[in-house]
TrEMBL record:
It comes from the Eukaryota. One of its GO terms (molecular function) is ATP binding. This is AAA+ ATPase domain-containing protein. Residues 769-886, 964-1045, 1048-1148 form the Disease resistance protein At4g27190-like leucine-rich repeats domain. GO terms for biological process: defense response. Residues 159-323 form the NB-ARC domain. Belongs to the disease resistance NB-LRR family.
Length: 1245
């Protein structure tokens, strides 16, 4: 009976509680729904408030913080669920289905109430998160890229190059000068110096600015500020200078290159000043005149960049002309032509390109023309340079190429000339005879540009799809244009008035005012009866419309007012291009341009725009960035219009029906960042705006840039094969892509897969080069469901926020190989929560063959990236990033079939990533190996020639080869005991292993509690960590020291160790002797550390010298007794800062002699130890919350980051060295502290 009672009690215990809980859901049904409504309203208000901040930040050109974007995306999903729930479920629903609605359905009532309560908690939690967003955005810093194509390290340049690098390293020189004639290669040499300086980590930042013949201080200030991430809001030059000077003085190591200085430049007036104590901040200047550098700029160290040696000139010339020079009849001519070029690189390359594959008579004529050349009017130019460049121009194969080069000369000096810009000018100019399609004309532009670049008449621009003109070439072409073609590039309005008064421009056909001062006074009227091309650009920052995404335009002051009669004397205009002008009073003047074919009004204040509709011959209309609010209906009369560009017209809200549909010749429509208020045709009501159906009926449309916020407004079969270029955004996709070399981009955020087929999106998927996928909850397999052909055109794939997909690419049949992503270069996936494999099944040989960058974040079911079979194709992979994947065990897994526990040595194959530069593995709690030879978590030993694997394997072993790996970051990833294992018994055999760390430059190890050593101590090699420049070790408690005594850190610049509780000393004395390049050393929070450099006790004689160490910091080391307890002499010739905090047992710095000639004070840091990790190179606190975002950016390993503010902080005490000796000073401080402690104890007792 008692047993039955006990059983009954247990039954009651386990049944009553759940019943009461379920009854609670029934009784609180109404309140739970009401609470959900309240919390949902609060969330909508929080989201709307955050949206205002985001919109404001975007208008200011700022990037939105990732956590904010993630929250917005997450809230969209939650809001949609809550809204649908509240719409579909109300009190009446609980009565459905039970006695015809007369009684409540208790089961339904219980489920709805429970779901409402859970959803309320989720919504309330998100509202709470929104309250914590105090900052939603940041201003991105522009990074300069110095890619010097065609640079040849001639012997005549090597000495100069070495002297420049040596001078940059010499603290006695703050400015270095390069001088030489125009076209000799000063700019190219400077770019190579900049590239090498960044490669060697000599400077934290390298900035290059072109000064030019007519320098504008505002432009120089703006360009330097852009590269520093500084926004100059001051209006006056002195005010901007003060702001820039303050920012520059925050830099400790920076190289500023001022190229093409023609006259004295007052650096202080610009704001270029680093402070007297910044010996590692340098300025490199170039000029055509030595006097400008030495006498006017006060540069002491000036180096000449001379012409090439005869042998170098011959080699360069012969390399370009190829086999032609081997002809016995041409060889003597070549010798004489090389002499006429006089060793000037630009003359040699241009003439050689012009004569390549030409007959002997052409060569003879070339030599004759070179011999009769006359000097040009370019100051300092060698008299024979002009003839060489002119010859190259004359020898161009087509008049189209000549005309295009002449059009390039009408841009401002050092302009990045966009090919799209040339297309607009070329179409209006009538450059492309017989071509009716814009895409064909675009191909012609690219062809001509490539031809001109191969002949060295054009250079690569700063971004893909742009070119530049060398200053000498530009000067010569301008001269040709003005003398032979009556085409004039005029610097300012004053020069225009002068030319107009002496009737120089009376017969001109083209005039370019490429940099007009915004405050100037324009003439009331210009009479140029023959002019066909007129360009006028207001000189202000960000005037390049084609780089809008990279350098967002913002208005700074009013636009330049154009008089109402200004254009009345230019009735023959074919091309009119205006930037940042106020056109309020030009209604009548525009009606005169009956021959105009290209009209570009960029960032202009538009008046009455209806008059544009009278320009019946107009082919290109570009109103990008203008303040137009409504597209006039008269635009619909432009039946010959081929291109309509309305990008960045943020105020454009009205486009009346049937305007666009009447543009029957339209081939290209660009509405990026512009109009989105499309009406739906056939919804029964009167339409106030155009519909997308109008675009569908434009049968010639081949280039379309469009934002479609709601996929439901898409007409059926809207997209077709005729689209050759596109940038289509469907849904609320917030990411924008800025690669100028990509012409087909598609961004999708939809919930229903039928949209893809019904509206023709599948066509775009097959043709896209860049694909953004957000959500798509209906998707299981990317390739199978989106493009069965395998995305053969795709270069970049971004996919995030999906809970359904299992595979990116999968072969469904066992004997069928899947061919996909043959041209994919970048794969970024995030929050694919159900993703099990990237590759599943057999893949074709070329799958992922061009992949360069893979990034995987928060894919919690993913256990590895690729199988071994795929790695054979990843020969171009340069970057691997894996973060926050809970089940990730290995990056590459070996095909494990059959008995993997007994595997012979021969079955273990090597893998190689020949181009891998960066590897980041962060927050992977189950990570075991990089390359797993067998199943993780098994053990091994050797039995009869068979290898039985053990779980103690390191992350890497000798079977992994990454010869170019330069950056390795490991944070909280697995239970790693060692990083590299070089002597795994039985795996090595007779092979010589390749050290994976031989080229490593940056190594970060954080929160690896089981890590016992970085390097296998038993495996000694001379190349391990040899090139390491930055080493950071944080919270690795099992580490006793950093490395074995035989390790050399001869290239190490920065070293930081923090919170490694088991570390007794940092380095051995033998390793310390190799730290000749160390600039900054910081140790903190290592409780067991007794000394920084371990003392073996048997060392006599010799010394330890830290030649480059500038900053040393020791914080919160309670057991530290000294920096070094041995008797070897220590030298610190450049040490300027020593910071100490909470080292109570430190009674001396060293037991031997210590030399610190530049150290005058000790900084005693007064602070409470909070366990945080301080980064010595960028003053960022390394807390758990900061790690993820911090490691998205590449680290600069050469920067010494102890700021002036930290040196002079009010919380710090400065102690002068007693007798100039750090040992005596520390001893005195320790004794004083001991006395204070004893005194305190005495009074306490």
């Amino acid at each position: 009976m008692e047993i039955l009672i006990d059983i009954g009690a247990k039954i009651t215990e386990y049944m009553v509680g759940p019943i009461v809980q379920q009854l609670g859901y029934l009784f609180n049904y109404k309140s739970n729904l009401e609470n959900l409504r309240t919390q949902f309203q609060n969330l909508k208000e929080a989201k709307e408030k955050l949206n205002h901040s985001i919109d404001e930040a975007k208008r200011n050109g700022e990037e939105i913080e990732v956590d904010v974007l993630t929250w917005m995306s997450r809230v969209d999903g939650i809001s949609e669920q809550a809204q649908n729930f509240l719409r579909d479920h109300h009190e009446g629903q609980a009565y459905r289905g039970c006695f015809r609605g007369q009684f409540p359905n208790l089961l339904s009532l219980n489920q709805l109430s429970r779901k409402a309560k859970i959803m309320t908690l989720e919504v309330a939690a998100e509202s709470k998160v929104a309250e914590g967003f105090h900052k939603v955005s940041y201003l991105p810093i522009l990074q300069s890229v110095f890619d010097v194509k065609g640079y040849v390290a001639f012997q005549s340049r090597k000495s100069t190059f070495s002297k420049i690098v040596d001078a940059l390293r010499n603290p006695d020189f703050d400015m270095i000068g390069l001088y030489g004639m125009g076209g000799v290669g000063k700019t190219m040499l400077c770019k190579e110096v900049a590239r090498k300086a960044k490669e060697l980590m000599l400077f934290s930042k390298v900035i290059m600015v072109t000064v030019s013949h007519s320098p504008k201080l505002e432009s120089i200030q703006q360009e330097v500020a852009e590269k520093l991430g500084l926004k100059l809001e001051e209006k006056s030059i002195p005010g901007r200078a003060d702001r820039l000077r303050h920012r520059l003085r925050q830099e400790n190591k920076i190289l500023l290159i001022l190229d093409d200085v023609w006259e004295k430049l007052e650096l202080q007036d610009i704001g270029i000043s680093f402070g007297d104590d910044k010996k590692e901040c340098k300025i490199l200047l170039t000029s055509r005149c030595q006097d400008v550098l030495y006498n006017e700029m006060g540069v002491e160290q000036n180096l000449l960049v001379g012409v090439l040696f005869d042998s170098e000139a011959t080699k360069l010339f012969n390399t370009i002309v190829g086999d032609t020079v081997k002809d016995s009849g041409i060889r003597p001519l070549a010798t004489e032509i090389i002499k006429e070029c006089a060793g000037l690189p630009i003359a040699i390359t241009t003439v050689a390109n012009a004569l390549r594959n030409k007959s002997r008579p052409v060569w003879s004529n070339a030599l004759q023309e070179l011999r009769i050349s006359t000097p040009t009017n370019i100051k300092g130019m060698h008299e024979k340079v002009y003839s060489g460049i002119k010859l190259s121009y004359v020898c161009l194969r087509s008049e189209e190429a000549k005309s295009l080069l002449l059009l390039c000369s009408l841009f401002h000096e050092d302009a990045n000339i966009d090919e799209e810009h040339l297309l607009r000018r070329g179409i209006g100019w009538g450059l492309f005879r017989g071509i009716t399609k814009l895409e064909e004309a675009r191909n012609k532009v690219v062809t001509l540009v490539e031809d001109l670049k191969t002949r060295c008449l054009l250079l690569d621009g700063y971004y893909s799809g742009s070119v530049k003109m060398h200053d000498v070439v530009r000067d010569v072409i301008i001269s040709i244009a003005s003398k032979d073609r009556h085409m004039y590039n005029i610097n300012n309005v004053a020069e225009l008035d002068g030319c107009f008064n002496d009737r120089t421009l009376r017969d001109s056909i083209a005039i370019s005012l490429s940099q007009v001062d915004c405050d100037c006074q324009l003439p009331e009227r210009l009479d140029f009866p023959k002019v066909q091309f007129f360009c006028m650009n207001c000189s202000r920052p960000f005037r390049n419309i084609f780089m809008h995404y990279r350098y967002p335009h913002f208005r700074c002051g009013r636009n330049l007012e154009v008089p109402s009669h200004f254009f009345e004397g230019m009735k023959e205009l074919r091309v009119l291009e205006l930037t940042s002008m106020s056109l309020e009073s030009l209604t009548f003047s525009f009606s005169l341009f009956q021959n105009i074919q290209t009209l570009c009004l960029w960032y202009c204040d538009m008046g009455e725009a209806a008059i544009i509709g009278e320009l019946k011959n107009l082919k290109i209309l570009d109103l990008s960035g203008s303040n137009i609010e409504e597209l006039p209906k008269q635009i619909g009369q432009l039946t010959r219009l081929q291109m309509l560009d309305l990008k960045y017209c943020s105020k454009l809200k009205v486009i009346r029906p049937n305007i666009i549909s009447n543009l029957t010749s339209l081939q290209e429509l660009n509405m990026d960042g512009s109009f989105t208020d499309w009406d739906v045709e056939g919804d029964g009501g009167e339409r106030s705006n155009a519909s997308l159906m109008e675009l569908k009926n434009l049968h010639s449309l081949a280039n379309l840039h469009l934002d479609i916020p709601d996929a439901n407004i898409l007409p059926k079969d809207f997209f077709s094969e005729k689209l050759e270029r596109f940038n289509i955004i469907i849904g609320d996709v917030r990411v924008r892509y800025f690669d100028f070399g990509i012409s087909r981009k598609l961004s999708l955020k939809i919930n229903e897969s039928n949209i893809l087929a019904e509206h023709g999106v599948e066509v775009l998927l097959r043709k896209s080069e860049v694909l953004y996928l957000d959500g798509l909850g209906c998707l299981n397999n990317v390739v199978q469901e989106l493009d069965s052909e395998g995305f053969q055109q795709l270069k970049h794939l971004h996919f995030r926020n999906n809970v359904q997909i299992q595979y990116i690419v999968s072969s469904m049949e066992e004997n069928h190989t899947c061919s996909a992503f043959a041209n994919l270069e970048l794969l970024h996936i995030k929050k694919l929560l159900n993703l099990e494999k990237i590759c599943n099944g057999k893949l074709a040989q070329n799958c992922f063959g061009k992949l360069r960058d893979i990034e995987v974040i928060e894919c919690d079911k993913l256990r590895n990236l690729f199988p071994f079979s795929v790695t054979k194709e990843l020969l171009q992979l340069k970057r691997i990033t894996v973060m926050s994947c809970k089940l990730m065990q290995e990056i590459i897994f070996y095909g494990r079939e059959g008995d993997s526990q007994n595997m012979s040595d021969k079955t273990v194959q090597k893998i190689q990533f020949p181009e891998l530069r960066t590897l980041k593995l962060c927050y992977l709690p189950n990570l075991v190996h990089f390359y797993s030879l067998v199943e993780p978590n098994c053990r091994t030993h050797r039995e009869g020639g068979q290898l039985i694997i053990d779980s103690a394997m390191s992350l890497f072993n000798e079977k992994v080869t990454c010869p170019k790996l330069t950056n390795l970051t490991l944070i909280r990833s697995g239970s790693l005991k060692e990083i590299w294992h070089g002597q795994s018994e039985g795996l090595l055999g007779d092979e010589e292993p390749t050290c994976i760390f031989s080229g490593l430059r940056g190594l970060t190890l954080s929160e690896l509690p089981d890590l016992r050593h970085i390097w296998d101590e038993k495996y000694q090699t001379d190349i391990a960590l040899l090139n390491l420049m930055s080493l950071r070790v944080v919270k690795c408690d099992m580490l006793k020291n950093l490395a074995p005594s035989w390790i050399s850190f001869q290239n190490l610049r920065t070293l930081q160790v923090s919170s490694c509780y088991g570390m007794v000393n940092l380095l051995t004395s033998s390793t310390a002797k190799t730290l000749a390049q160390l600039r900054a050393l910081a140790i903190s929070g290592c409780k067991s550390m007794t000394e920084i450099i371990g003392n073996k006790g048997s060392e006599t004689g010799g010394e330890i010298v830290f030649n480059q160490l500038v900053a040393l910091e020791c914080r919160h080391l309670p057991s530290l007794t000294s920096f070094y307890s041995g008797n070897l002499m220590m030298g610190f010739p450049k040490l300027k800062y020593v910071g100490l905090s909470d080292c109570p047992e430190m009674s001396s710095f060293s037991h031997g002699v210590v030399s610190t000639p530049q150290l005058g004070i000790l900084t005693l840091i007064d602070e409470e130890w909070d366990g945080k990790v301080y980064c010595i190179d960028d003053d960022v606190e390394w807390t758990d919350d900061d790690y993820t975002e911090m490691y998205f950016a590449e680290l600069d390993f050469d920067e010494v980051m102890i700021s002036d503010d930290e040196w002079n902080s009010d919380t710090n005490r400065l102690q002068e060295l007693i007798e100039g000796d750090i040992n005596i000073t520390i001893r005195e401080l320790w004794e004083r502290d001991q006395f204070d402690v004893a005194l305190q104890q005495l009074f306490t007792e």
